[in-house]
Design goal:
This protein has about 425 residues and is mainly alpha-helical. The protein is built from 21 helices and no strands. It has one domain. The chain has helices at about 5-20, 25-40, 45-55, 60-75, 80-90, 95-110, 115-130, 135-145, 150-155, 160-165, 170-200, 210-235, 240-260, 265-300, 300-315, 315-335, 335-355, 360-375, 380-390, 395-415, 420-430. The longest helix is centred in the middle third of the chain and has 34 residues, at about 265-300.
Amino acid sequence: MNAEALSTLILLGSFLLMIVLRFPIAYAVGISTVLCMASMGQNLVSLPQQMVKGVWSFSLMAVPFFITMGVLMGSGGISDKLIALANSLVGWMRGGLAMVNIVASYFFGGISGSAAADTASLGSILIPMMVDEGYDADFSTAVTITSSCEGLLVPPSHNMVIYATTAGGVSVGALFMAGYLPGALLAISLMVGSYILSVKRNYPKGARFSLKTFGKQIISSIWALAAVLIVVFGVVGGLFTATESAAIAVVYSLFVSVYIYKGLTWKGVWQSLDKCVETLAIVLILIAMSAAFGNCLTLLHVPAKAATLITSISSNPVVVILLLNLILLLLGMIMDMAPIILIATPILLPVAQSVGLHPIQFGIMMVLNCGIGLLTPPVGAVLFIGSAVAKRPMEKVVRATLPFYLCMIVALLLISFVPQISLWLPTLTGAL
């Protein structure tokens, strides 16, 4: 075994071993990087240099702003407004509250950008509501956690900013526009699955559709939905950068939450900012550590070797795309979302491009794969949150989620093999 192969084995082997041993992911990335650099005889002084370089990015400044915006809006009484809007739109269907759950997640995801925030916020309201109306508790939890993944696709999503920065040369505005149709496709797929189960189990319908009620709820929710319009159309229209739009959205969210919806007091604002700092500390240390880890991958030519390995299995684009999805799904079962994006993008993006996948399309694929990973044991954070909110055993929630996994896989395959689902809207708006 030559020196390069040994260093690669140390880097990846120690990282996977620490993941299995349940080390905190930032420690696993950092320690494996140090061991690899030592094996290559590199001066460890370059480690902090690489870490600083990883976070020294104007585009990455959008991440803390979007996280802050999501926390402020999520704590500011927005959930009730969006649930009422979704109920006026789809509550009349068989299994109406399940449909409301899914559509509300689409709206709320455009504000929070977080599956965990969606599950905690909407789940605490909708799961008890669904159970009181006669829905099975595990079914209600399954609908809540799977629909929360829509928020990862619907802009503004800080994970898309992380992907754009890691991929290099990918437009954040184009990624934002690319997320709308895949998010809608995922919502429709989940709604079809929910409808079939609702008919089979004879779940109730809601009140009949009323255009007057729908119009009233649109007006009531317009302040919340406007935050998304400010960000997305401001970026796509070239009025300001993603970072500038995120900063404006924070100020707007603060104003709406405190003075319009009055769901936050100034004391609550400071508590929300505490929560933001905690989240940001985790995200930014991961980005910094992953930059050093990625530098080791580059020095060891791991991306090129991975591309050669995958294409040696098959040169058929269909097979390669399926392999890419399988790899991402497996990674999602053992790692959280941000580290997967940071570590896997430099390795797998060249492979994806070699079989004709556009970086934007691959980014949407990666985000959805990571979203499914958030729902799968043993590291499924959203699965654990949903189980805790509903006070249901995780095993029963997983069993109830099985049909919805199928719905999500169908959406994933359509996104993987139909490029226009991701690329049509960015092309139409001139973002691509």
